[in-house]
Amino acid sequence: MRLADMKIWFRLTAAIWLMLVCAWTAVIVWEGQVNRETAIEQAKGFSLSMHEATMAGLTGMMITGTIDQREVFLDQIKQLSMIRDLRVLRSEAVSAVYGPGGAGEADADPLERAVLASGEAHVEVEHDAAGEYLRVVRPTLAQKDYLGKDCLLCHQVAEDTVLGVVSMKVSLDEVNAALATQRIKLWLAAVVVSVPLLGFIFFFISRVVTRPLDAMVSGLRSIASGEGDLTQRLKVRSKDEVGQASEVFNAMMANFATLVAQVSRSATAVAGAADELVTGARQVEQSSQQQDQQSVAASAAVEQMLTSIAEVATSAEQVHRQSQDSLQRSDEGSQRLQGLVSELSRVAAAVNEMADAVNAFVDSTDSITSMTNEVRAIAEQTNLLALNA
Question: N or C: lower Cβ tally within 10 Å for the chain?
Fold first, then answer.
């Protein structure tokens, strides 16, 4: 299951719990570090006190003449719980006057010899098989007023000359144990504080976040299952983010309702226009059918006209041919008429010549005149035919 699929209250609670764990861890680690540093500083202060106490005891033993009991005194100090080891080493200036001291003072380690040579204290946390400890090597300098005594009276050396060192190991086991116990107590305190805190956070998230979101989701489901009822609205119970989201959703639903109403009106207008378009299309279809019928009739009429034109053309061709024939015949008739006229001229000449004979033939005049009229009638008919052609 993905983190994004988990409930918001669970993710918020888990995030807050993780933040608390990180915060408590950081606080405990930081406080443990601070306490450790404080404990180490206290151990350093304790080592300084033990150094002064040791030197004060040895100084008193020197004054009282009991310096030969120094080992008993040092062994008694070593019995302290925090002191793992304690040694007092003389410098060369003191050994030259009072001797090298005990057998243990001759085997100084490199660190002790370095402090004897430099006069600088060494304080450092170290580890070994026995545990953690504070290694302290502090020098003792010749001063006119050191723990209420003038060192220069007994030691004929220059001031601030290193007289010796006190080397000790201060155990940090008790400090570490106390720090571990404190960490456990802090973790227990963190758990004791975190449990009711997480309970309060869960209750707060449930009241402020989960319930309003569940109510909004329930309202959204009701609207989603309302079969397109755009009049439903979410209840706005607050002015927080959930309430603002509900108001935005209600505004969106109002816009949707307005948009749907506009779309509905537009759809009604489109439906009316579509009906008008269908009516117009039907009218166009009827007109097209009428035009088609008229076109068919016109086509038939045109075909008849073409047939008639073809017949007229045929008739005209026949008339043309007949006219050509008539013209040709007219030409022939004209030629014949001209020949006839010539003949008539000759006849007229002959008549004139026979004028005298005409008188003689008076009885024959009517018949000759009749023949002449017939010839003229024939000529006129011939001329009329020629004109008609």
Answer: N
For residue 203, what are the CA distances in angstroms to 47, 90, 192, 196, 210? 54, 72, 17, 10, 10
Cβ atoms of 47 and 136 within 8 Å: the answer is yes
pLDDT digits (tens, 9 = 90+) for 217-268: 777 777 777 666 666 666 777 676 667 777 787 787 778 778 877 887 888 8
Beta partners for residue 133, in sequence order: 126, 171
Residue 309 token pair = 């034109």
| 220 contacts 226 by C-beta, under 8 angstroms | no
Q: What is the pTM of this model?
A: 0.53
152-156, 204-208, 220-224, 384-388: least confident range? 384-388
Element (H, E) at 304: helix 241-353
Q: How many CB atoms lie within 10 A of CB 81?
A: 8
Alpha-carbon gap, residue 113 to 258, rounded angstroms: 97
- Give the sign of the dihedral formed by CA 50, CA 53, CA 59, CA 65: negative
What value does the mean pLDDT take over residues 261-279? 82
According to the model, what pLDDT value does residue 341 have?
61
Crossing angle of helices 8-64/70-78, nearest 10°?
170
Q: Distance between CA atoms of 349 and 358, rounded to whole angstroms?
A: 13
Per the DSSP assignment, residues forming a β-bridge with 169 are 85, 135
